[in-house]
Design a protein that fits this description.
The complex is a heterodimer of chains A (176) and B (468). Chain A is an alpha+beta fold and 176 residues long. Chain A has two domains: 5-37 and 142-173, ACT domain (Alpha-Beta Plaits, 2-Layer Sandwich); 54-123, no CATH class. Chain A is built from five helices and four strands; from the N terminus they run βαβαααβαβ. A four-stranded antiparallel beta sheet of chain A has the order 2-3-1-4. Chain B has one domain (13-465). Chain B has helices at residues 11-34, 39-50, 63-70, 84-89, 96-142, 152-159, 162-177, 189-193, 196-199, 207-236, 242-269, 282-307, 316-347, 350-362, 364-382, 391-418, 426-447, 460-465. Classes of the chains: A alpha+beta (176), B mainly alpha (468). The interface between A and B is small, with 10 and 10 residues.
Chain lengths: 176, 468
C-alpha cells in the first residue's frame, strides 16, 4: 500500500531532472509521478513507462474515417443523387474515385486526429473544468517536480534527492 | 577498438559490377541489333510478335481533334513521325491504304526507338539517384543538420556518379539531336514545320539552346559537388571550421540553383519527349521521384556497409530517420502524382488528358503497378515506427521503392517514345543492369578514396550521439 506521506523534489533544469530520474530508479526507488512544464524528451524511457498504444488506435481511427468517407460519398454522390462528375457520367464509385480522394484523405485525417485527442483525454482523465492535479504551480512555469511515496525512508530519500540536484525538497502529508 | 574507417572495394562486389555491366551491354547491344532497320522488317516483326493484333489503339484519340484544329495541314504527306501526337495530326482524310503505310512507318519508328528509350530510361534513372542524393546532401549542409554528418561520406560516394551519369545522358541527347533516333520529335525540322504547337515553342525547344542548357545544368551541379566534396575533405584535418562554413554557403546557393535547373531539366529531358503536353508541376514531380530514390539509395548503401563491418558510428536511429524520409517522401511523391493526375483527369481537356489515356490504356500494369510499389507498399511497410529500425524492412521497402521509381521513369518516357510497342525485355533489363553495374562501380570506388567518417565536421559529435 502506498504511504500517506509524499516527498516532493523540485528541479530547475530538464537535463538535471533526467539524470536524477535515472539515478533514483537505478537505486531501486519508485517514482510516483513527474510534473513538467513541457514534454521532456526521453523522460518516458527514463521512467520506464510502457510504450503508448495510441499509434495503433490512430491507425484504426484512420481506417474508420476512410471507410466512412467512402460510404458517405457513395451515398451522396452516386446513390442518393447521382452526379455527373467531370463530364463523365458513369455513376460508378470506382470510376469517379479520383474526385473523392481528397475527401477520403481529409476524413481519414479528421477521424484519426479527433478520436485520438478524445482518447487521450479519456485515458488521462481530463475533461473541461477539471481541477488541476499538479501539486506545485511552479511546474506550469519553469520547474520540474518529482513525487515519491515515503516508506519509512524519509532521511535516505532526502539525501538521495539532494545529491541528484534538487533545488528544494518538501514532505507532504496526504490530506484525503 | 578496431575501427574500419577506410573502405576497400571487395573483389566480389567489383566483379558483380563488371558482370552486370557486361551483361547489360550485351542486352543493350542485342536490343539495338534486333531493332528493325527498315519498315518491312518492322512489319514482319509485328506480324510474328502480335499476330497482327496490333490495331488502331491510337486512333479515336483526343489528340486528333487537336491536330484538326491547330495545324493547317492540307493532307501533307509527312515522313517523319515518331510520336502518336504527330500520328494524330496526320490522320486526316487519307485513304485507307496510305494510312496503313503511314501506320507502318509510325510503328517502325517506335520499334527503332525502343532500344534507345530503354537505354535512356536506365541512364536517367541512375543519374537521377545521384542528383537526388546531391540535393539531400545540400539540404543537410544548408540546414546544418546534426543527425546526418555520419552519412556524409556515403552521400558523397553516391554523388560521384553525377558527372559520368550526366555525361552519358547528355551524349544520348546529342545523338538524338543528330537524328540517330526519334525520341525527341521536336528536333526534327520536318515535324516542326507541320506542327503549329511545336513551332510556337521553338524559341525554347531548339537543339542548340537545349544542349547548351543541359551542359550548363550539369556543369553547375558538378561544380557544387566538386567544391563541396573538396571542403568536406579539407575539413577533416582543419583546425577551424572555415571549410564547414564555406560548405554551408555554397550548399544554400546550390539549392536555389538546383530547384530552378532541376525543374527546367525535367521539362527538357522528359516532358519534351511529348512536346504537345505539359504539366506545371512536372518539375516537382520528377524532383520527388529523384529525392526519394536518392534517400533510399543512401539507406541501402549504409545498411550494406554496416553489414560489412563499416560505419560502426551509424546507429539504428540514423536508419530510422532515413526510413522516415523514405516513408515521407514516398507519400509526397504520391501527393504530386495525384495532384497532377486528378486535375487533368477532372478537367478532361483533350490536349492534356491524352497523356493519361495513353498510360491507362496501353500501360495499365506499369502505370498502376508503380502506384502500388511507390505508395501503398512503403506506406504499409514503413508506417510502423519499429519497422523503420529493422534493416530487413528498410532493405525490402527500399528495393521496391527503387524499382517503383524505375517504373516511374519508364512510364514518363516510354509511352511517348514507343507508344504501345512496349515490353520489359532484353534491352530494358540490359540497360538497367549496365547502369546498375556502372553506378556500383563508380560509387564504391569513390567510397574507398577517403575515410568513411568526416571526422572534422563540427556536428560529428552530435551526429554520433544521435539517438531518437
Amino acid at each position: 500500500m502506498s504511504s500517506n506521506k509524499l516527498i516532493h523534489a523540485l528541479y530547475d533544469d530538464d537535463d538535471t531532472l533526467l539524470s536524477a530520474v535515472k539515478m533514483i530508479r537505478s537505486q531501486k526507488h519508485e517514482i510516483d509521478e513527474v510534473y513538467t512544464p513541457f514534454p521532456v524528451h526521453g523522460l518516458d524511457k527514463a521512467l520506464g513507462l510502457q510504450d503508448t498504444r495510441i499509434a495503433i488506435m490512430a491507425f484504426i481511427y484512420g481506417c474508420i474515417g476512410f471507410a466512412i468517407s467512402i460510404a458517405m460519398m457513395n451515398f451522396i454522390m452516386i446513390e442518393d443523387w447521382p452526379q455527373n462528375i467531370g463530364g463523365k457520367p458513369s455513376f460508378s464509385y470506382l470510376e469517379n474515385m479520383p474526385a473523392f480522394v481528397p475527401i477520403m484523405f481529409e476524413l481519414t485525417v479528421f477521424f484519426a486526429a479527433h478520436l485520438m485527442v478524445i482518447t487521450f483525454y479519456m485515458r488521462s482523465k481530463l475533461w473541461p473544468f477539471k481541477n488541476a492535479e499538479n501539486p506545485n504551480p511552479l511546474t506550469t512555469d519553469d520547474k520540474f517536480l518529482v513525487e515519491m511515496g515515503i516508506h519509512n525512508n524519509e532521511k535516505q530519500l532526502e539525501k538521495l534527492l539532494k545529491k541528484s540536484g534538487a533545488i528544494d525538497i518538501s514532505i507532504i502529508e496526504k490530506t484525503e | 577498438m578496431e575501427e574500419k574507417i577506410m573502405y576497400t572495394f571487395p573483389n566480389k562486389l567489383r566483379n558483380l559490377a563488371f558482370i552486370s555491366m557486361i551483361l547489360g551491354f550485351l542486352g543493350l547491344a542485342y536490343g539495338f541489333l534486333a531493332a528493325p532497320s527498315t519498315i518491312e522488317e518492322s512489319k514482319s516483326m509485328l506480324i510474328s510478335d502480335h499476330h497482327g493484333g496490333h490495331s488502331e489503339s491510337n486512333s479515336g484519340h483526343p489528340e486528333e481533334i487537336l491536330g484538326h484544329n491547330t495545324s493547317n495541314h492540307d493532307s501533307v504527306e509527312k515522313t517523319e513521325h515518331s510520336s502518336e501526337n504527330s500520328h494524330g495530326n496526320s490522320q486526316d482524310h487519307h485513304q485507307g491504304e496510305s494510312h496503313d503505310l503511314e501506320h507502318d512507318e509510325h510503328v517502325f519508328h517506335q520499334l527503332s526507338n525502343k532500344p534507345w528509350a530503354a537505354f535512356y530510361v536506365a541512364a536517367f534513372f541512375f543519374f537521377m539517384i545521384s542528383l537526388g542524393t546531391l540535393a539531400f546532401y545540400a539540404i543537410q549542409r544548408a540546414a546544418q543538420a546534426g543527425w546526418s554528418p555520419v552519412l556524409y561520406r556515403v552521400m558523397e560516394g553516391i554523388t560521384a556518379y553525377l558527372l559520368p551519369g550526366g555525361i552519358i545522358v547528355i551524349i544520348l541527347l546529342v545523338l538524338s539531336s543528330m537524328h540517330l533516333n526519334h525520341l525527341f520529335i521536336w528536333m526534327d525540322p520536318e515535324v516542326v514545320a507541320h506542327d503549329k504547337l511545336i513551332a510556337g515553342k521553338t524559341g525554347f525547344l531548339n537543339t542548340p539552346f537545349f544542349l547548351a542548357r543541359a551542359i550548363f545544368f550539369l556543369s553547375g551541379w558538378t561544380l557544387y559537388r566538386y567544391f563541396s566534396r573538396k571542403f568536406s575533405i579539407a575539413q577533416d584535418h582543419a583546425s577551424d571550421i572555415s571549410n564547414h562554413k564555406k560548405n554551408f554557403r555554397i550548399s544554400a546557393a546550390f539549392l536555389v540553383f538546383y530547384i530552378v535547373t532541376e525543374s527546367i531539366m525535367s521539362w527538357d529531358w522528359i516532358m519534351s519527349i511529348d512536346p504537345h503536353w505539359f504539366s506545371t508541376l512536372f518539375g516537382w514531380y520528377v524532383f520527388a521521384s529523384m529525392f526519394v530514390s536518392g534517400i533510399t539509395t543512401i539507406a541501402l548503401i549504409t545498411i550494406y556497409l554496416k553489414s560489412k563491418g563499416y560505419l560502426e558510428f551509424v546507429n539504428d536511429s540514423h536508419i530510422h530517420d532515413l526510413g522516415k524520409f523514405m516513408f515521407g517522401i514516398s507519400v509526397f511523391w504520391t501527393y504530386l502524382w495525384f495532384s497532377q493526375f486528378m486535375l487533368i483527369w477532372y478537367s478532361n481537356i483533350p490536349e492534356e488528358v491524352t497523356y493519361f489515356i495513353t498510360r491507362i490504356e496501353d500501360y495499365n500494369l506499369p502505370f498502376f503497378g508503380m502506384l502500388v510499389m511507390n505508395f501503398i507498399f512503403p506506406l504499409l511497410i514503413l508506417m510502423n515506427s519499429d519497422y523503420k529500425r529493422i534493416n530487413y524492412f528498410i532493405v525490402m521497402a527500399g528495393i521496391v521503392i527503387l524499382l517503383g521509381h524505375y517504373m516511374d521513369v519508364y512510364n514518363m518516357i516510354m509511352p511517348s517514345a514507343v507508344g504501345d510497342q512496349w515490353y520489359i525485355g532484353v534491352p530494358e533489363i540490359g540497360g538497367f543492369l549496365f547502369f546498375f553495374g556502372l553506378f556500383i562501380y563508380v560509387v564504391f570506388k569513390e567510397l574507398t578514396k577517403v575515410p568513411l567518417l568526416a571526422k572534422g565536421d563540427p556536428y560529428m559529435g552530435e551526429s554520433k550521439r544521435f539517438h531518437y
